[in-house]
Design brief:
Elements: E1 6-9, E2 15-18, E3 23-28, E4 36-42, E5 56-61, E6 64-77, E7 82-89, E8 98-106, H1 112-120, E9 128-133, E10 140-147, H2 148-154, E11 164-168, E12 174-179, E13 185-190, E14 195-203, E15 210-214, E16 235-236, H3 240-243, E17 247-251, H4 258-272, E18 276-284, H5 287-290, E19 302-307, E20 312-323, E21 332-338, H6 344-359, E22 365-377, E23 383-389, E24 393-406, E25 409-413, E26 420-424, E27 432-446, E28 450-454, E29 457-458, E30 490-492, E31 495-496, E32 511-513, E33 519-521, E34 544-545, E35 548-552, E36 556-570, E37 580-584, E38 592-597, E39 604-608, E40 611-613, E41 619-624, E42 641-649, E43 653-665
Parallel strand pairs: 9-12, 13-19, 15-17
Antiparallel strand pairs: 1-2, 1-5, 3-4, 3-20, 4-7, 5-6, 6-7, 8-10, 11-12, 14-18, 15-16, 18-21, 19-20, 20-21, 22-43, 23-42, 24-41, 24-43, 25-38, 26-37, 27-36, 28-35, 29-34, 30-31, 32-33, 39-40, 39-42
Amino acid sequence: MANAPITVYDLNMNKVAYLENAYTVGYEMPLNALWTASFSLPINDPKNAECLPLRYVEIFDGGQRIDLFRIIPNVMSRDGDRITYNCEHVLATLLDDLLFQFHTVGNLGFYTTDVINYVLTKQSVTRWQRGDIQFAHQFEYTWENESLLGALVSIPKPFTAEFLWTWNTTTFPWKLNLVQPSQAVEAYIRYGANMQGIEKTIDPTSICTRIYPMGYGEGVNQLLISDVNGGLPYLDADTISTYGIVAKTFVDRRFTSAETLKAQGQAILTKLKIPRVSYTVKASELFAITKDPLDRFNTGSLVRVIDQEIGEDFIIRVVNKRRSDVLGSPGDVELEIANQGLDVTNEIADLQTRQRIGEVYAQGATNIDSHDFADNCDQTHPATLRFWIPEEAVRINKLMLSYESQPFRAYERSIASAPATTSGASSITTTGASSITTTGASSITTTGASSITTTGASSITTTGASSSTTTSSTSVIGDTLPVVSYEGSLVNPGTMSTVPDHNHGITSGTQLMVLGGGSVTFSASGSHSHNVGVHNHLFESESHFHGMNHTHDMPHYHSMPHTHEMPHYHSMPHTHDMPHTHSIPAHTHGIEYGIFEGVTPTSITVRVDGNVVPGLGVAEESVDIIPYLAKDGEGRVTRGTWHTIQITPNSLGRIVSSVVSQIFVQSRGGGDY
């Protein structure tokens, strides 16, 4: 029936029933929260069979569509023979899906629209689509095991401006909007017109003028806003001069970005910096009669409240609208209007909910690790250590470097040699004694005239064996004739060599005088030989005088086997210039194994990510290297990358070093192996 207060749909949005017998139909419409509704049916109504859990119901109020809900627990009561059904808005369908495990989205270049799209794409069944989004922030969001609805309602939490969730469920898929609420007055409540009663409450217990936002982690590793708030971990309200300092902590471990955490803290401080003033107004909604929009109250709209008797005239936003029975009391409505959307009770409840959610969020733990290394090095080859800082390092507490210099160390002597060839000039200077022995025949040939003049007495005595025999023929021709003799040479012992034909210089036929008288005729004897045995000549010559000026002109040859042994010393500085080539074949030198130490450096230079650490000696302990590590654009040590330490000595040497790190690592990422 078209005029039934409730229509039932199945899960595919097909109409299955009109509940024309429904009664006690009521609803509640809180601002930016999940709406609820309820209704009852007679226990014997056959339409109860269609009111199955999680089916959808469309509720109307005086012919005006309120919205679409789904059935949750029902209560059967014998009192009055009825069944009461409780419902929640279809926005609750986003509770059915989950952002399983860890999700981080947002930050620079990723706007509010993109974040909402990301969440809505995680639906198992696409019931909701993004509608009108009037914000374009770039906050970073982190969720872990969070429902899609919980993730969505957290998106505008860091906003300092007012926001309003709206939706359109008249078409499927449904549209979700995030808009700025209107600043125009949309309704009036006047005493004596549509106001039945008003109750004002001022609650200073919820006031907060200083807030300490705290995010991910624990202890010294908990995320604070100091780095993005001038070093201060808190935010102050501009109402401190009025209300004094009232400090509170805001803890939400879902936040891993300091900027987003600060924005969230500022948004909460804006709400709590003044006492909450709320009004509960009982009024009559006359829209069904007047059809004037000023007589209709909507959650999130501004209304003007006028009560001249108590001196109240103010404009305030409707934060909740309740109707208990749209059929039995069609005009009665209860409005909650306030300067804040949440009272302290709801805020505390919200924080408790966050803490329960935070229990399923992976936090992490503090880890202490060391990186040790030892290596030889010199001026051009520094000792180098590279270590990794993971993306999961939420905080870096310490990075300390310790090192000492030691003598250069080798573990063997000698190396293998390959073929080598060398050519070029060579020079050498040699000094010192020199000796030489020569053996063998020596011969010399002499030609030319030989003359000798002998005067005076001559005496000679010869005894002993002779190894050579000389024969001669002598002729005396007075005082004027020359005496010519011929001397042979003994070739073999006992034999004279053959003498060629000769005449001793005398013409054949010449008469020669002989001793004792008489003469003989000289004739050439011709070629002949003498066979002479080895013999001795013993003769004595009287003192006599040869008065013969004469000349011997005898080409002759001496053949004398002999030996020269001459120890001698040459002092001759000299140089040998000898172009030469050395060719050394492949060969191997044996290796002696052991530990052999060399020199030790006397000064050290340390570089961390290319930055020189000043004032260090050859041995240091617990040097803080965090100031020298590479930083990102926000001044934080870069994660997910290598960092390098180089230790350079002024000579050969050995460096023994250790880097100790203390970091807080979140329990996210990776697998289970």
